[in-house]
User: Which sequence fits this backbone?
């Protein structure tokens, strides 16, 4: 995706982002939002891109506080989320390293962000949306969800692929 100039690949082309947001916000009667990363290790353009999104009609920006090269490794840079929040007037959603319920309040306190987006942390603990950490969930509830997830995987992919693909969970 990025090598083709899409996703984080667009962050090397600020003018392309400006034109895209300008066209979308002019043509659509719904809010247009953006989700970005910090950029690339050699081109951290997140502050510029956040301003471009806002200046071209974007109604909200979500920031995954890692670079393209970091992928999902290393520590998310919550200070960058705070920087973006201080630069724009539109709502900012923070994303990265939210694994426990306490991380939600901590990210909001550290960054001032308007909301928190949870990705991989919810794979290991879907109960985080109910404000429960994984160790607070009864084993029976976990087993019930695992069985339901496996059954749906098999239903969708078939027996062999469903079981094989499910192993990563």
Assistant:
């Amino acid at each position: 995706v990025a090598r083709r100039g899409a996703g984080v690949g667009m962050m090397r082309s600020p003018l392309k982002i400006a034109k895209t947001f300008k066209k979308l916000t002019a043509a659509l009667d719904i809010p247009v939002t953006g989700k970005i990363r910090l950029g690339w290790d050699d081109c951290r353009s997140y502050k510029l891109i956040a301003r471009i999104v806002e200046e071209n009609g974007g109604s909200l920006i979500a920031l995954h506080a890692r670079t393209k090269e970091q992928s999902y490794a290393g520590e998310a840079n919550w200070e960058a989320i705070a920087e973006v929040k201080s630069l724009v007037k539109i709502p900012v959603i923070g994303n990265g390293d939210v694994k426990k319920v306490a991380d939600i309040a901590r990210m909001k306190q550290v960054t001032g962000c308007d909301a928190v987006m949870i990705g991989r942390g919810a794979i290991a603990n879907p109960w985080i949306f109910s404000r429960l950490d994984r160790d607070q969930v009864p084993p029976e509830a976990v087993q019930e969800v695992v069985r339901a997830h496996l059954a749906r995987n098999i239903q969708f992919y078939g027996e062999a692929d469903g079981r094989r693909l499910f192993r990563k969970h």
